[in-house]
User: What shape does this take?
Amino acid sequence: MRRTKADALQTRESLLDAAETLFAQQGVSRTSLQDIARAAGCTRGAIYWHFKDKADLFNAMMARTTLPMEDGLAQLDAPGRTDPLADVLQSSMNVFHQIVHDPRTRRVFDIATLKIELVAELDGVRRRHIEVQKDCAQHIGHCLARAQAAGLVRPELEPATLTLTLLAIVNGLIQNWMLEPGRFDLCEVGARSLALFLDGIRPQAGVAR
Assistant: This one.
């Protein structure tokens, strides 16, 4: 039984590796499940043993790389955190750093931003994307609300708007960098951009509000 489970896990990983490679090479829509099975040395039936459809396979491929980052964002809500703005900065910088320095992360972000069409076949991918964005926004929003309650954010600003602005900065920088990685240093520009954002939302000394 242990051998059977190990074989099944290896087959699943082989399918995910093949999907990742083919999606990166030729795009998601132009890659069939048969292409993935052939590249993995498996049958098409093996895909359906592990995954419901292409969207399910795609989401699993993304999850094995992005779940650690999602778990990191969840830590923003952990009890005992004393510097919410520093936590937001660090979690965002961790994402930039992983994209730049980890080839697999860079590849799956390239697929997710540049190699996919969210057509009907991939509606499950769109739904998963929305869920992840909502979850990220919730963790960041809670963190910014705590910072505001602690007097670290100007009181007239709405945490929901700040959250959307921060996500727009992070997502926008990633998408622009993925188009032409040599054009700018994602970590350096990301750090400066986030510093400008955070400086802009902090209370200004000597300014009446």
